[in-house]
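Following the same procedure, backbone shapes were mapped to integers, yielding the entry below.
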Amino acid sequence: MKRIKISILFALLASILSVNAQGVIGKWKTFDDETGDAKSIVEITEKDGKIYGKIVEILNPAKKDAKCTSCPDTDKGKPVLGLYIIKGLSKDGKEYSNGKILDPTSGKLYKCTIALDGNDKLKVRGYVGISAFGRNQIWTRVK
């Protein structure tokens, strides 16, 4: 009887850990839309119930020292490395929305939603106005 209880406890613990592993928090590899090449690593974190994403690694050595010359407001002129590009997303069912995403190449700020697509893929949608006027990117989890 004791073994059964212990087995059930381990099974419950494993299921809880697997649910947490499937969250959006963590490091994600981004890809260039035109070439498909790996572009950067973005670390997604949560602060005060909101989701934020910061560029923690630039994978192209020629762009490691790039600055966000076209970015708006306080991000203008900042190094791309260390820049928060996902800002203030809130959980809305299975996705996160009501925040912004910054394209450091163009300096444009878009509305944003993100949602898991399986365990190790993140669907990131940036758009203007309504979600129909936007585009998706798929990021992959960094293990």
About this structure: The chain has one domain: 24-141. Confidence is low (pLDDT under 50) at residues 4-21. The domain at 24-141 is CATH 2.40.128.520 (Lipocalin). The first helix runs from residue 2 to 21.
